Amino acid sequence: MPHVITQSCCSDGSCVYACPVNCIHPSPDEPGFATAEMLYIDPVACVDCGACVSACPVGAIAPDTRLTDTQLPFIELNAAFYPKRETKLPPTSKLAPVLEAPVVHPRPGGPLRVAVVGSGPAAMYAADELLTQQGVRVNVFEKLPTPYGLVRAGVAPDHQSTKRVTKLFERVARLPGFSFYLNCEVGSDLTHDELLEHHHAVLYAVGAPDDRRLDVPGMGLPGTSTATEIVAWFNGHPEYAGLPVDLSGERVLIVGNGNVALDVARILTTEPDALARTDIADHALDALRASQVREVVIAARRGPAASAFTLPELIGLTSACEVVLDTADHDLVIRDLAHEADPLTRNKLEILAGLGQACDSRGGRPRIRLTYGLTPKRVLGEHAATGVEFAVTGTDEVREISADLVLTSIGYRGKPIRGLPFDDVAAVVPNDGGRVLDPQTSRPVPGSFVAGWIKRGPTGFIGTNKSCAAQTVHNLVADYNNGLLTDPVHKVASLDRFVRGRQPAVVDAAGWKAIDDAEIGRGGELRPRVKFTTVAGMVEAAACAPSPPVHQRLLAGLRR
Ligand code: NAP
Q1: Which of 410, 413, 468 to mutate to test the pocket of ligand 1 (most atoms within 8 A of CB)?
Q2: pLDDT grade for 131, boundaries at 50, 70 and 90
Q3: Which pLDDT tens digit goes with each residue over 314-340?
Q4: How many domains, the chain?
Q5: CA-to-CA distance for 437 and 446, rounded, in angstroms?
Q6: I need a labelling partner for 51 at 20 to 30 A (CA). Which of 80, 181, 353, 551 fits?
């Protein structure tokens, strides 16, 4: 009864270190870890101890006898990663080599103090890594009153198990030395230099909040938008809650076929009653109940073998929705299959080859149609989008697809941070292993660090940020130990007063807990939560937090 990793694998590698026989790969020290679509358990070497199940922060691992029907393909998918063997391997006591925690050497300037800007996965994994050391203080600054970044606002609401990683982040937030300063924007409420007066270092883990824009005529017409905006809209992000999303037409066209495109297509075609059991925003649920959409077309500029979506997400999509291809696209899949050697890509192509023909569609729930080899040229329509004109990639042939709503899903994009250098082409902060670099001198900018998408670009999964953040923290601690970070000029105790002077409505851990409790309460029996979708609503809920008992306040004062 070997264990199996399933669709919601977050790739943070926690299972790798929990496994007593090192049967989960690729491990963070192996080549291929950074680009792996998920991690895989070797069914022959697995000793069925279940240690990985408890270590996985998103509940993605189960014994092969306890999988749901939709998870069954993952048995073969895990096995396919390993060479075929006839005999069971003897048990081994070999553990994956654990990355050493960064040892902080005490210095005269007081304990290491780090400001982390952003509160998504990269920020929380960085805080976790820093707080492995006693005495270190981590203050997390977030512009929204709610933490966890894209886990809250980017993971699709029907992927609730992925959102379980917040349980891990909650444990981090309870560690001694950790503080939240939510609803406090660095760059407007506080400056980088001011943060440095209170900390040895500022670590930016602000992600890639913009989306890449498709530079073709007609983008910006009514009826055009981006998939990332739609994701933020259905997740109740306060800046997108009022987005005008018109689902009164029959066809939605999505340009680009990454996992975000799949998320949007799935939500637009899923039975609203099923979504009503998730934490989808009420405004989105209402719009989806009234939706007239019958087909979502996902158009990629390259061929099927180059599909940007991952195999686990394709398996999840095809088990939840009707996904079809036109005959011409079926032919492209067969052509690619004839030449493809990589087993994982072959797996993807085999699933695509087994999809139904668009012309045989059953006509029940709205369907998703995948199409290939189409490079967008312009959005059609004078006053509102009516479709997209494509060139058949590599030819002069023109093809049009009509649509009532055109969404681009061509990736996220980092945006400049005030006071730090920015690489406008890669849309990242130039850095060496997370140390921000001045592009003029190629020397580190003192006290400034980055982790996550603003460091390496918008690729990978939630857990990819664990090793990314660990690398940055190791370099930060090395600089601190080597005396390269300037001591803060202000005492620890002065930060709270300073922040509250700038942003009286700052939300702390107790405030966030009050918001969290209120949202869960609003969800009642049937839903995990009903989110607040305005900052004012969140701040009002945070204000209901009970003030901590006197002994806790005294203790907090002493700790400072
Ligand atoms: P992505 O995976 O980078 O996909 C971008 C898509 O846009 C590709 O199909 C790309 O085509 C296409 N594209 C780029 N420029 C284009 C242009 N000028 N014209 C037409 N097409 C263009 O981006 P994403 O979907 O936003 O995902 C971002 C990251 O988040 C990925 O690492 C993804 O796996 C991750 N994510 C994971 C999950 C999950 O695990 N459930 C969910 C959401 C996101 P080419 O390939 O031809 O460049």
Answers
A1: 410
A2: very high
A3: 999 999 999 999 999 999 999 999 999
A4: 3
A5: 9
A6: 80
